[in-house]
Amino acid sequence: MTTSFPRQSARTRRFTLGAPRGFQVSPDGSRVVFLRTRGGTDPVTCLWTLDVPRDGGEAKERLIVDPRGLDLPGEEDLPAEERARRERAREQAGGVVTYATDDRLTLAAFALSGRLFVTDLDATVRPLDAAAVPSFDPRPDPSGTRVAYVSGGALRVIEVATGTDRALAEPDGEQVSYGLAEFIAAEEMQRMRGYWWAPDGRAILAARVDESPVRRWHIADPADPAAPPREVAYPAAGTPNADVSLVILGLDGGRQAVEWDREAFPYLVTARWDSRAVLLVVQTRDQKTMRILEADPSTGRTTLVREDTDPVWLDIVPGVPTRTGNGDLVWVSEDGHEARGLIVGDERVTPDDLHVRSVLDVDGDTVLFTASDEPTEVHVWAYGPGGPRRLSDGAGVFGARRRGGTTVIAGSRLDRFDAETTVLRDDAPVARIASHAEQPSLDVGVTLIRAGERELRTAVLLPTGYTGDDPLPVLMDPYGGPHAQRVLAARRAFAEPQWLADQGFAVVVADGRGTPGRGRAWERAVHRDLAEPVLDDQIVALRAAAERFPLDLSRVGIRGWSFGGYLAALAVLRRPDVFHAAIAGAPVTDWALYDTHYTERYLGHPGEDPEPYERCGLIGAVSGGEPPTDVTRPLLLIHGLADDNVVAAHTLRLSSALLAAGRPHSVLPLSGVTHMTPQEVVAENLLLLQIRFLKEALV
Description:
Blueprint: H1 5-11, E1 21-25, E2 31-37, E3 44-51, E4 60-65, H2 80-89, E5 94-95, E6 100-101, E7 108-112, E8 115-119, E9 125-128, E10 136-140, E11 146-151, E12 154-159, E13 165-169, E14 176-178, H3 183-188, E15 195-197, E16 203-210, E17 216-219, E18 230-233, E19 243-250, E20 255-257, E21 267-273, E22 278-283, E23 289-295, E24 302-309, E25 322-323, E26 329-333, E27 341-344, E28 347-348, E29 355-363, E30 366-372, E31 379-384, E32 387-390, E33 396-403, E34 406-413, E35 420-425, E36 428-432, E37 446-451, E38 456-461, E39 472-476, H4 495-502, E40 506-511, H5 520-524, H6 532-548, E41 551-561, H7 563-574, E42 581-585, H8 596-603, H9 611-616, H10 618-622, E43 635-640, H11 649-660, E44 666-670, H12 680-698
Helix pairs in contact: 1-12
């Protein structure tokens, strides 16, 4: 019997299981370490290595760690810190989902069910008998003789050979932790770690996080009234953040605070410790100024390396700062240009029409980075002697790692569904790493168009076998906001939209203003207004698609999750003349309930000017916001009751406002579900329920 697409998508975690990821390359380029599950429906992630062939030899792939072969409980028992990290990283699999290695890539450390393990990456795996459990985020020192880890808010070090275990720093306050990334860093700054080894392994640079200023929220499970609510420190817009500082902890017991103006620059964006010094990046609360500082490990004093400013905001770019082999600083900045450019030393080394997305690695004097000259494509580039050159080809979305002359390029293409991973030696392909991900039980047929005067990148999907005889009801399926693109040159991104189309809809996915990849003015078009530009662009994309495809504009639905859920609800509340039904999943309905770093970047500080919050919120659109309308459209609100990112209060407050206004709507609460929906039963039936709702409303 053929498995239905909703079940297949749920079992494969949207076809991500079985795909290789988490690559690291040894300094000599002879070994690649990576993560992959053993099959497309296997949720247990394993650790693998690939011996890179030389002189025409064969690549040798080996399974190093399969958690099922270790002495573990039948079901993962994750510490709270690891559950939070996986939620912030949107990690849907289990097993060895993250690992860290020594500098030579000869030893790897990881945690399973709160216990520490190490492997010599030659198939020998053993537990470390940590003095404190549960253990979290183990990281070997550069030599591989010690492993640092976090437990109970303390940063500890254990000797690999002897098992000697001691604390370098223990909490000096009830809400203090060492070595962890606070909520804002992990959720909004892409900083998932809170400590960094010195190059000589004699000290650790650690974040000290004091969450006592942060307001406490309580997340209860109404399905289990006997269970006490879970307390979380949530820094909502306009409220205090965690107090984050840095301290250098010597293995000899020494302790040195790193000094900078933390009142003016409260956000610690990132840090690193290279052979020259400690580098850290700090940011003002209004995110208009960012500084690179260099710290002297012996005194903790910092000196200014570079300062960037912007009258609106500055974006955080992954992978920087770093240095080339000869010591040149590597940075990414708009620096007065429309597109972000790669800065090496004091020189912008990329052309003005190339928008840099991230820095991936520095291998000697070669800088590996991703960039776009077309926003739907993300390519791997290398800058070195001779200037920048593109390493990936064809229409697609790619990432990479590089070290010792070996480059691993992984990506997805528009012309086929399966992901590909190619290993290059001196830029020549020498091996491939297989993906075990499943193929969907449908054929994906997507057309990318440029809609309207702003050339909105838009994807259109029609039912398989559709002949064009009758106009189709339309389903808009956007994210539509900052930080995420939906319209990418990757066929695997459109499996679910194709299934939705096959239920009898024309599915339109559009990336409007505010979405990434199109330069400074494009992203900043939503400054102080997260409503009007994004909604207007969805309407432009809809009408442009109707000019090319047989769409029935009298039957238009819209659905989305998170910002997309906000946009879907906004659409039927503000423009019921265009949108006739909406599904809003985990929507932000009151921006004052969302976090500081994200919300204040776009809407400012609510204590200084609450007007953008009132104008962009959904509550006002129900209780007297502009434009007023008496037209009511079917609206389904879906929310996980365990969501600690967009808390369920968003949906409950909107539902209360709708009820007070006499507006019918439906609410689907998901007990025990967070901002993600990885549970098979939940993910499968959510798709089926959404289709039933849309058909009743539109067909």
